[in-house]
Amino acid sequence: MVELNGRCLCGAVTWHYNGPRGRNLVCHCESCQRATSAPFAAFVGLDPNNLTWSGKINHYESSPKTWRGFCPACGSRLYFKSAKWPGEIHLHSSTLDDRAAYQPDQEVVCEERIGWLDHLPDIPKHNSFGASPEPKD
Ligand SMILES: [Zn+2]
Ligand SMILES: [Zn+2]
Description:
Blueprint: E1 2-7, E2 14-19, E3 25-27, H1 30-36, E4 41-46, E5 51-54, E6 58-63, E7 66-70, E8 77-82, E9 89-92, E10 106-108
Parallel strand pairs: 3-10
Antiparallel strand pairs: 1-2, 2-5, 3-4, 4-9, 6-7, 7-8, 8-9
The protein binds zinc ion (ZN) (2 copies).
One zinc ion binds next to helix 1.
InterPro entries: CENP-V/GFA, Mss4-like_sf
Organism: Phaeobacter gallaeciensis
GO molecular function, one term: metal ion binding
């Protein structure tokens, strides 16, 4: 059992969970990439019967009987759920209040994984946005 809380960027939507731990997937499918405008999506898999929401949520049906929820005020992505897996809802891990508590269990749809992710360990790291850009040419 696990107790978790989360919110969108603006705070208009919050969620609370107290229930069994589910699958924590990092998904590399192109649909997740386009839906989130990010190179992959990291999900906390939860039992929808133990999850409560507050605030208004809109959703988009990204494929038949598959819905992606988001905050209509700030646009934060909140969840993925599909009729294929009725016992699970997948919340975006970055909505967690304690984002550092997230531990992915597996990566999925790796055939659609963005190749440059492999190069991240090899490029410079900064704690801020880094140095001002140097003019090129
Ligand atoms: Zn919001
Ligand atoms: Zn996906």
